[in-house]
Amino acid sequence: MPDIPSVTAREMLDSQRRSHVGDIHHHLRTSGILKIRLQFPDDDSQYLERIILNLCAHHGHGPPTRHSASRGWFWDVRPSSAGLETRVPLAVSETMQEFQWHTDCSYESAPPKYFALQVLQPDRYGGGTLSLMTIAKLAHHLSPAVQKALFEPEFKIKIPPEFSKQPDQQHIMGSILGLDKMDNSLVVRFREDLIEPMNPRAAAAYEELKVALN
């Protein structure tokens, strides 16, 4: 992966400056990824919240996705014992399990193009590794026939209980590949434990996708 572009936020007011927000938008559109260094404490993620709102207001970004019926935009990616005590379903990010290749919100009818992670406390025990993949490179390992099959809405995608917004909706039907409406770039949804191909063509293409990912 090429070098990740970086922007520095020196104070909270930067989140309200049009030039600062414009830089963030530019890097997201051109590189798809961005690292922001905060030079001030912000354990409540106020800077991130304001940046998201200003990207929506001034650069046409869609509204943030709520994680579930009970939680808003933000999700704590940290181990939790609450589910063990109350039998509430835990997300993988709330456990000590390793999270395999996946895209966030893969169970949404329209998954978000971007997501944000704020590091509040670096892992002190050698974990916390974040691996990223360029979708354009992945596409080079998929034949045109496989890509065509993955564009078809022939996959049943389970909605995890902890992310459910409607109790009577337990899955959606959708495609694995799609095109971004703004620039026609390739987008993908993937989380192996949630996806079930609904016919032999879809199953064969899905197996080839998993081989390419590995």
From TrEMBL:
Task: Give the UniProt keywords, A-Z.
Answer: Dioxygenase, Oxidoreductase
Any one Gene Ontology MF annotation carried by this entry is:
dioxygenase activity
The record, for InterPro entries, names: TauD-like_sf, TauD/TfdA-like
Q: Which domain of life is it from?
A: Eukaryota
Pfam family name, one: TauD
- Tell me which residues make up the TauD/TfdA-like domain: 18-150
Looking at the keywords, is Transferase present?
no
What protein name applies here?
A: Taurine catabolism dioxygenase TauD
User: What organism is listed for this UniProt entry?
Assistant: Aspergillus kawachii
